[in-house]
Every structure is written in structure tokens, then in C-alpha cells.
Amino acid sequence: MTYSAPRFFRVAVFTVMGVVCLSAPGCGREEDGRHVMKVGQILPADHPTSVAMEFFRKRVEELSDGRIEVRLFPNGQLGGANELIVDCQRGNVEAAVVSAAPLAQHVPELNVLVMPFVFRDGAHQQAVLDGPVGARLRECVASASLQAAAFFDAGSRNIMTRKGPIREPADLSGLKIRVMDSAVLTETVARLGATAVPMSQGEVYSALQTGVIDGWENNPPTCLAFSMHETGCKHFAWTRHVSIPDLLIVNQRWYDGLAEPLQKALDQAAMETRDRQRTLWSAYETQAIDTLKQAGMIFTEVHGDAFASRFEGFYDAYVQRYGRPFADLLAQIRETGGQTHAP
């Protein structure tokens, strides 16, 4: 008589084997001698960052002579930003494209990139990210078992509402505005004058349609890519309150398990993709604004000083919370290319 283990026992054994496999570097990630690199992101396939990641896929496979196969999963197929970060840390996915805001919950130093009005403009931000501050932040990300392979442009974040126009803080009074799951963003939007509502990106469209929230904050390309203008959210206020970059993060153990030539291929592809993404972003942002205007979205310049003045003492609280290294990073950002007007 052949013995067959009870079903619950077999399931338990397979579950344990699966957990062990996922926790071991390289386990289950090679097919026919190729390293498989799954990349998750919440952005849709036609977003400029997603288009740049298609370029990344091709370049990695070219530079590695096909020894690394990149599989892209856009549009939240593998989960929201927080899920992707945790899964990338654990090695359940090899890489992800996420905003610095939710990643800062795991790497507190990244909150310097989420600070309101810390960057003068896009050129200043790129100089910061490509210089000593960016190098230091990469070291901080490494402490979370992740590698920051590239910083991507995500423009400035602005307020979009169903009611409007919004020109000054008083116009936001009583409005519920969606934010990413970020303590800094939540407090930032509250200081702008609204009630901040943390919510995953996948819930925003229906929440706007049903009136659960009155608006959200983001940039024109993402507004167009997610068709948010179709929800009745037609008032766009250029608050430019934060400019938070996206990051391509890679599981450190998986990366360390690659042969050195493959690591170099990945590094080169990441840098080329960073440059390609920034070019794509700039062109798409102009196109997105034109398209949104044609669709009926109303763009309004705000009283910038009225919003910026509400952040007096804001930085001091975070310096007190995170200490001298955080203060030093802020000082380096201000000193990059000259003094900023940050509070």
C-alpha cells in the first residue's frame, strides 16, 4: 500500500518550501540560465515613466546578452506602492518603480525629498539627485536591503479639485484632498488648508466620482494617464508644493547575486533609462497640459507666497525628529547651485 500524506500536511510543506525559496537569493529566479527580473509599478503602460521602463527592459537584455530577462508589470498588477516596496525588500519581486514618499516610511532620510518647497525648479532637483546628496541617499536606501538604481523625474505636485478655482489657502478650507501614504504629504496638504486623506492610487478615480474626496494632488502627466479629468475633477491649481522623484529600486541580495558584468549592464541601463525618462517626461508634460485643457481642465496660477508662508517652522520639526544628518542633507540641498527660498 502506498502512503499518501494528508492534504493539509502537503500544503504546509509546499508553503514552507515556497517561503524558503522566496527568501533565498537567486532561488526561483533563473530560467534556462537567464536571470528573471520582475519589475512592478503602479503607473499605467502609457505613462512616460512606463515607456522609459520599456526602454530599460530592452537595454538590460541587450547589455546582458540576454542573460537577464526583464518582465514589466505596470498598472498596479503586483500591488500598490507600499506592497511593492515590501515585496522588493523581501525579494518577492526583483525591482519596482515607486515614489520617494512611501519609500520614506522605510528610509526616513528620503523625507528630505518630500519637504515642501525644497527645490527651486526641476534643474535644481536634478543637480541634487545627481550629486553628493543623491549619493548619500543611495547609501541610506541600501540600509533597507534595496538599491536605488535611478532617480526619475515626477514633476511638481499640484492640487486638482472638483470645486474651484483654487487661488489661496482659504479656497481649500473644508475640502478633502487625497494624498499618498506619507506623513510629510499628509501634514503638507493640511498646512495648505485642506483635509488630507491618505489613499492608494487605485482607489482615487472612484473616490472622486462618488464624492468621497473633493480632489487630489499630483502632476499633469499622471492626471492624464489615469484619466482623472473624466471624474469631474477639472480645476488644476499650480501650487507646486512638492517635487517628489520616483525611484527604480532593486532587491540588494538579488543584485549582489549577479555576476559583475551583469551588475555593470544593469547599472548602465539604469543610468541610460534615467536620462531617457527625464526627456520623455518633459515632452509628455507639455502634451498632457494641452490635452487636459482641450478636455476642459482649467489651470490656475495661485498666490504662491500665501501657500509657502504657511510652512514656517515646518522643517524644524523634522530636523528635531530625524537629527543632525537630516539637517545636513537639507543644508546640502539648499547649497546646491545656490541658496533656496525654502522655509
Explain this structure.
The protein has two domains: 12-154 and 245-286, D-Maltodextrin-Binding Protein, domain 2 (3-Layer(aba) Sandwich); 157-243 and 288-335, Bacterial extracellular solute-binding protein, family 7 (D-Maltodextrin-Binding Protein, domain 2, 3-Layer(aba) Sandwich). It is of the alpha/beta class and 343 residues long. The termini are far apart. Helix 2 runs antiparallel to helix 11 and helix 13 crosses helix 14 (324-335). The chain contains 14 helices and twelve strands. The strands form two sheets. Strands 1, 2, 3, 4, 5 and 11 form a six-stranded mixed sheet that branches. A six-stranded mixed sheet has the order 8-7-9-6-10-12. Helix 7 (183-192) links the parallel strand 7 (176-179) and strand 8. The longest helix is centred in the last third of the chain and has 35 residues, at 260-294.
List keywords for this structure.
14 helices, 343 residues, disordered C terminus, 6-stranded mixed beta sheet, D-Maltodextrin-Binding Protein, domain 2, alpha/beta, 18% strand, globular
CATH class call of the largest domain = Alpha Beta
CATH domain topology of the largest domain:
D-Maltodextrin-Binding Protein, domain 2
Beta fraction of the residues?
Answer: 15-25%
Count of DSSP H/I helices: 14
Query: What form results from the Cα inertia axes?
Result: globular
Distance N to C terminus? 79 Å
Number of domains: 2
Within CATH, the superfamily of the largest domain carries the name: Bacterial extracellular solute-binding protein, family 7
